[in-house]
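New here. Your pick:
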Amino acid sequence: MERRAALSSQRQVFATRDPEEARAFVALRGYVLDVPAREASGVDMQLDGVYSPGFCLLHLGYGAAAEVRTTRDFDDYRLVAPSRGRLFAVIANDEVAYRPGTAMLVSPTLDNVVRVARDTAALNIILSGVELRRQLGALLGEPLKPPLEFAARLGLREGWGRSLARFGRLAMAELRRTQSILAEPIIARSFREFVMAALLLHQPHSYTEALRRLERPIMPRDVKRAIDYIEANLDTIIGLPEIVAACGVPGRTLIKHFQDFKGTSPMRYMRAARYQKVREGLSRAEPEESIGDIAARWGFSHMGRFSVEYRRRFGENPSETLRKRRSTLI
C-alpha cells in the first residue's frame, strides 16, 4: 500500500493499492466503489486533483476493473473524459461506451452506474449542483422548476467539446504548477463559471429550449405570413411572386428576412416542406397507394430526381419508407 497526503489545501495527490482504502477514500466524496474479488490484486488507484469551492478537477485511475455509483445524497454534476482505456456507463437505462475522444456527463438526478475497464484513467470535472443550477437560473432570469438533466454523451474531437477538453487539459497542467494563476480564488471562480457556461449553452439539457427561446429574436410578420401561405398551398403550383404578394413586402426584403430567421430561401423552405409531406404520406399510406401517387400529390413528377433527393434528405429510399408502412399493416 502506498499513500501520499495532500500537498496543499487545494491540490490533493493520493495513491493506494489497497481496495478497502480506495473504497473508503471515494466514499468520503459521495461515491460507492465496487472492485470484484478477482480484480482486487490489480488495484492501483492514482488520483491527482485540485479542489476549489464548487469545482474539482482531477485525473483518476483505479488500475483494476471497477464499478462506481453515486450515493443518493450526491448533488454534483460529473464530466468524465477517458485519457486511456474505456468506460461503460448506464445512465437512465441507456448504456454507452466511452473511449478517448468522448466524455460522459452524469446528472445527479439520473440513475447511473459506471463500469471502469482495467487500466483506464480519465480527466474528471466535478461541478457543484447548487452552483450550476444558480448559474442556469441567472441565464434564464427565473427560478428552476424541473431538474437540470444533461444529455450524457459529449464528443471531444470537434466543435465546442474539443475546445472544452483542451481547456481542461491545460487547466490541469497549470494547476499542477507551484505558483499557478488558477490558484487565485477569483480566477478559479471565473474558470469554474466558464466551464459551467460552456455546458449550459452547448450541451443539450432539459432547459436547452428555454435558453434558446431567450436568444431567438421575434420573427418578422412577413416571414410568418410567407410560411402560413406556403403551408396552406403546398398542394398547388405557386412561386415566389405569389408568396411575395401574400406577404406585402418586396421580394428582396422577404428573401433576406427568410435567410436571417429560417436559414434558407422561401422556395427551398417550400420544397423541404413538400418532401416532408411525402414522407408523412408514405408513412401513412393505404395499401392501394403508390410512391408515384403520393409524390405527385405534392408536386413531384420526375421520380428519378425525386428519389435521389429523398434519400439525401432522409437517409433512405422512398420504397424503404413505404416498406416500413406495409410491414405494420400485415
In short: The CA atoms of residues 43 and 64 lie 5 Å apart. The chain has two domains: 11-214, 221-329. The radius of gyration is 27 Å.
